[in-house]
Amino acid sequence: xxxxxxxxxxxxxxxxxxxxxxxxxxxxxxxxxxxxxxxxxxxxxxxxxxxxxxxxxxxxxxxxxxxxxxxxxxx
Length: 75
Description:
alpha+beta; three-stranded antiparallel sheet; flat; 2 domains
C-alpha cells in the first residue's frame, strides 16, 4: 500500500493524515475521558493482568481523569 501525500485514514477512531515522508499525523482534537471509556480501559487491563490494575498505570489515570470530568459535568 503506497502512501499518498496527506492521505486521510482512520486509526482507532481518530482521523490520521500521512505526511509526504510517510509519518503519521494524528488529529489534535482533544476528547475528554468519559466514565464509560475509562471503564472499558480498566476492564481490559484487569482481564489481561489477572484482575489487577497497576496503581500508576494508564487505566488508573484514565479512571482518575474520567472522575474529574464527571465532577466538572463534562459528558
